[in-house]
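Dear colleague,

As promised, here are the two records you asked about, laid out in our usual form so they can be pasted straight into your sheet.

NAME FIELD: protein one
SEQUENCE, THEN STRUCTURE:
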Amino acid sequence: MTVVTSSVPSDAAFLAELAPVAERLYERHLESTKEWFPHEFVPYSQARDFEPGEGWDESETPMEPAVRSSLLVNLLTEDNLPFYFQVITRMFGADDVWGEWNRRWTAEEGRHSIVIRDYLTATRSLDPWALERNRMHQVQAGFHGTTLPNAANGFAYVALQELATRISHRNTGDRLTDPKGKEVMSRVAKDENFHYLFYRDLVAAGLEVDPSMTVEAIAHQVDVFEMPGTGIAGFKTHAQAIANAGIYDLVIHHDKILAPCVLRHWKVETLQGLSESAEKARDRLLAQMARIKKVGVHLAEKRDARLTAAPA
C-alpha cells in the first residue's frame, strides 16, 4: 500500500479546532522532557578501530540473535526520520503549533538513531557494513506501509506506533546483558513515551471534536497497522525472530498497545452518539482486536510448546 496524505477542507477545520489542545500538549511536553546527550550514554572506551580488511566478528559481543534482529529493526526504523518528517508536514502542515511540534519531535527523534548507532558501533554489536547498506536501502525506500487519508487517521496511527516503539525499545533493552545497552534503550523508550502521550491525548481530543470520524480512523488504523520498519530488507525474518523471543508479538501488541489506547484511554466501547458508519466501524474494531488477541495467544502457546519440547 502507499501512504496517502491529503489536506481536505474538513481536515483544515479539524486541525484548527484541535490547535489549542495541541498547544497545551506541546507546552506540557516541553515542561516534562529533559535535555540529554547521546555521547554521555555511549561506552566509547570499549571501542577500537576497524582495520582495513577486517571483518565483523559477532563472537566479540555475544548476544541472542533475536536481540540483534530487534536492535537492527529498531535502529533502521529510527533512521527513516526524513520520510516521517515529510509525511507529518504534509498531513498537518508546517505552520503554527503543528509545524513547531513536528520540528521539535524530529529533533528529539534524531537523538535516537545517534545514540543507538554509536552504542552498537562502539560495542561491535552489529555488522557495521551490513547496517549501513540496510540504512541506505531503508531511507531510499521510505515507508509505504499504511494509508493515512486524513488527520484523524494520522493521529491514531502515530499514537499506536509511538507506544509500540516504546514497548519494542524497552523490551529489547531488557534482553541486553550490558548495563550500558540497557541504559541506552531505556533512555530512548522514555522519549517515545512522551511522544506517545502527545498523540494519545490528541486522539482523545479528536473524539470530542468529531467522535464518529475519529472512531472510524482508529478502526482503520488498527485494521491496517504496520510498524514503519516493514520495508527493511529481511523484515519478516527479523520480525519472526523478535516475536519468537517474546520481545514483540501479537499478544504484546494487543495487551500493551491496543487495549490501553483503544479501551482504557479512548474508551471506544462506551462512546455515545456515533453515526451509523462509526458504530459499524467500532464493531469491526472490537472484533479485530479480539482476533488479534486470539491469534496471538495461539501463536504464543505454539512457541512455548516448541521451547518446552526442545532438548536442554
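NAME FIELD: protein two
SEQUENCE, THEN STRUCTURE:
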Amino acid sequence: MIQRSSRRSILKAGVVGAGAALAQTSKLPNILLVLSDDHSAPHLGCYGDPAVQTPNLDRFAAEGMRFDRAYTTAPQCSPSRASILTGLSPQRVCMTRLHAPLPREHRTYYEVLRERGCFTGVAGRNHHMDGLQSKQQWHYDVHRRNNLVSMPERVDFLHAGKQEDAPAQFQLFLDKKPKDKPFAFQVGFSDPHMPWTAEEFEKKYRLEDIRLPGFLPDTPEMRRMMIQYYAEVSHADMLFGQVMRVLEKNGLRENTLVLFMGDNGASIPFGKMTLYQAGWHVPLLARWPGRVRPGSSTAELVSGVDLFATFLEAAGAPIPAITESRSFLPLLEGRPFQGRDYVFCSRGWHERLDLVRGLASRTHSFLYNVWPKYSPPQPPQSYDPSRVDPKLAAKWARTTRPLYEMYDLRSDPWELDNLAGKSEHKAMEDTLKEALSEWMEITHDFLPPPNINLTRPNPNPF
C-alpha cells in the first residue's frame, strides 16, 4: 500500500498559498510560455547532448533553472496542452484523444490571470484546443453548430498561424496591450514536429557526431533521422532567440517569468505516442531575473499540470481547490519545497486507438498497457539484430507487449529490462500499481485501474 505521505503527494503536496510570491514586490509579473512541439529531453545542448546546436536556449538555461525531470501528461499534443492550460489531467477534461475541443466548463490560466488584470494572448500553434480547425475536417461544422469553439473568448489576442509569424505576432500583441497591464502570453512552435524540412540547419550536422539514445540501433538511417530532427530543434532555437529579442527590445526582460517546455516527446521510435521516457520526458527551462538563480538545476519531478498553479501563484491569484496542479514557484525562488513522488501520463486515440497509463517515480517508470494491440516500430533497412545488445534486439523484435512494464531508470535509463512480474521486484511493482490506481480513481479515468486483477476469470459474469 502507499504510505500516507505518498498519498498526499499524489493529491495536494507542493501547493502553497497564492500571493506568497508577491511578498517581495507588489508589481504583478508578466508571464511568457514558449512551447516546442514533439521535443524530448535531453535534446538541447544545456541538457548535455553534445551534438545538438541550440545556442539561444543554452544561453537562456544559463540565466535560469533547468528541470531535469519534467514530464507532460500525455505523449501527444492536444491532451498535453490541455493539461498545461487547466491544471487537470487529459481524462479529467475529456481530452484523451487528439483534436478534441476543450470543454467550456474547464477554465484556463489565461482566464484566471485576465481576472487579475493581465492582458492575455496566444500566437503560433495553439494546437487544436477547439479541435482541428480545418474546413476539410468533418467536425469543423459540428463544433460551430454546437458552440464548442471557445479559445477566442478565453484570451484577448489569438493568432493561430505559422511559427515563423510568432515573433512578429508577439510584438503586435505587445503593441495592443494597455501600458498599465501585465501580460500572459503563449508562443507555440511547430518545430521539431514533422515534417522535418529545416534543410539549411541540416548542413550544420555530421553523421559521425550524432550520439543516439540507447533504445535506437546505431545505423546510418537512424543517424540521418536524428540529423533531421536536430535541424528542426535548431530552427526552433533560432525562433526562440527571436522571441527573446522582442521581449528585451520592449524593455520587459526583468519582470517577466519565462518558461520554455516541450509539449510531448520526439516523433522517433519509442518516443511520441508512447509512454516510454522519450514520449513524455521533456525539456523545461525557467528564467525570472532576480527571482530564479542563474545556472541552477533541479531533479524534482514536475508535471505539465504544474504550470497552471505556478503561473497563478506568481500572479497572486487563488489556486482552485479542485486541481492536480502544484506550484513549483517556491522551487524557482529557492524557498522550501515539497516535491512530487510521482508524475502521471495517459495515452488515448491518436491516428490509431491505443490505451496506456503510466507513471514515473524518482527511480522507476511503470507502464500499464490496457489496449492489447501493438504496432511495433519498423527497424531500419541496415539493422542487424545479431550486432546489438540482446535486450535492445528483444525490444525491437516484440510484436506484442505485456500488460505491465516497469524499469529502474537509475540502471536502465533506456528501458530495456522489464522488471514487472519478477518476484524480487514485486514490492516496488505493487507500490507503483497502487499509486497509478489511486491517480486513475481521483481523475475519474474510464479505464479499470491496474490494482484490479484483469487476468482473473469472472466466475459469475451475470
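A couple of things worth noting about protein two: Residues 220-249 form the longest helix (30 residues). The longest strand covers residues 296-303.

Best,
R.
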